Amino acid sequence: MRESFAFSNLQRALTVTGLGPAMLMGCAVHENAQLAAYLPAPSYKVSLPIPEALKAIFQSTAPAPQELVSSLNALVGNFGGVAGVSVASVDQGWLISSNGERKMPQQSVSKLWVTMTVLDQIDQGKLSLDTPLSFTTDDFTVFHQPIAALVKPGQPYNTNVGEVIRRAMQMSDNTCNDKLLRLVGGPDAVRDFIARRSLGPIRFGPGEKLLQAGTAGLEWRDEYSRGNAFALARSRLAPTVRLAAFDAYVADPPDGAAPLAIAGALARLKRGELLSPTSTAWLLATMEAARTGRARVHAAVPPGWTYGHKTGTGQDLGGRTAGFNDVGILTAPDGRGYAVAVMIGDTNRPVRERQLLMQQVAAAIVAYHGR
Q: Which residues contact 200 (CB under 8 A, 6 or more apart)?
């Protein structure tokens, strides 16, 4: 069963209930330590209290649009697999959701929180966009890391924080993101930012290397960051080991986040409630120049509208993907904005159908705005 939540009616947000058996299948985390390099996150709970700060933030000045609620319900209900969609009005304060309470794998969506933590430290005077950073082969991670092409053996690539954020956010460069993560003090610093800003049910994982190794069923080794060593090591695992690790990650992702929390956080970002005015404007402009996911939500953005966003895509196994996401801020020509989180936690539907779901969500928002 998938429920919709309109946070103009705050009483309904106190506890999330009514998850059916299909949503809870496989939620037990495998205890074999060899299956995952990360420590399991706390087990998924059916009851999800909404933080007091989040409830107070969404004191709606307008009723939640029931026609848009119905559209989201239909889209999510007709999509085969675990998916969640949340939309928040930046200007009117309502937050609506269809299955948006369930924590979904974020994957590269979590780069948002790393970047916000960096910008928060810039606001505190601890860093600046011009703070120098240097990359060597020791910084390499896994999967998408285009900055690796700029690093030569014995010849570091020298740059600064601003460029590294742009590469992480616009190109989804994993090595750039982990460099920023170390710069701010590691995962605990990001978790502290999420907690201090009362962003709600958003987890932050152990970093790219351990997260991807755990999802695959491997224990991280430094040699995996070179060439295709990670893919080769993963291919040598027994299928049962890979499947068990994949299922454990999808059921209870250590980087899991509820779409409703992400949509709420993005609405607050747009309103200037999370960072300084300078950092807010810089981050929004950076997100609007993102190069990833052009066939997702972005493909349905009409002329005159803008969309600043961050995508996230996990590993594939047997036609399934451990997280297929697009979250961002959709702004109409009249300046009114909508924070959007479309997250697919697990499905065997073709990639094109996943992209179409995201486009249909954008089209529904645009249609509502026009009315």
A: 50, 51, 54, 258, 260, 261, 264, 265
Instruction: Give the per-residue SS3 of the chain.
Output: CCCEEECCCHHHHCCCCCCCHHHHCCCCCCCCHHHCCCCCCCCCCCCCCCCHHHHHHCCCCCCCCHHHHHHHHHHHHCCCCEEEEEEEECCCCCEEEECCCCCEECHHHHHHHHHHHHHHHHHCCCCCCCCEEEECHHHCCCCCCHHHHHCECCECEEEEHHHHHHHHHHCCCHHHHHHHHHHHCCHHHHHHHHHHCCCCCECCCCCHHHHHHHHHCCCCCHHHHCCCHHHHHHHCCCHHHHHHHHHHHHHCCCCEECHHHHHHHHHHHHCCCCCCHHHHHHHHHHHHCCCCCCCCHHHHCCCCCEEEEEEEECCEECCEECCEEEEEEEECCCCCEEEEEEEEEECCCCHHHHHHHHHHHHHHHHHHHHC
- CA distances, 53 to each of 69, 169, 261 (Å): 23, 27, 11
Distance from C-alpha of 356 to C-alpha of 268, rounded to nearest angstrom: 27
Average pLDDT for the chain: 86
pLDDT for residue 204: 97
Give CB contacts under 8 A, 24+ apart, made by 312-316.
Answer: 312/105, 312/106, 312/107, 312/108, 312/109, 312/110, 312/172, 313/107, 313/108, 314/105, 314/107, 314/215, 315/212, 315/215, 315/216, 315/246
Task: Count Cβ atoms below 10 Å from residue 166 Cβ, excluding itself.
Answer: 20
- Model's pTM, two decimal places? 0.85
pLDDT in tens, 103-115: 999 999 999 999 9
319-332 confidence digits (pLDDT tens): 999 999 999 999 99
Enter the tokens of residue 5.
């939540």
Q: Is 21 exposed, middle or buried (0-12, 13-18, 19+ CB in 10 A)?
A: exposed
Q: Does residue 267 come out as left (phi exceeding 0), alpha (psi in the -120 to 50 range) or beta? A: alpha
Task: Please check the confidence at residue 45 and state whether its pLDDT lies above 80.
Answer: no
Please give the C-alpha separations between residue 162 and each of 78, 130, 281, 350, in angstroms, as whole numbers. 42, 6, 14, 36
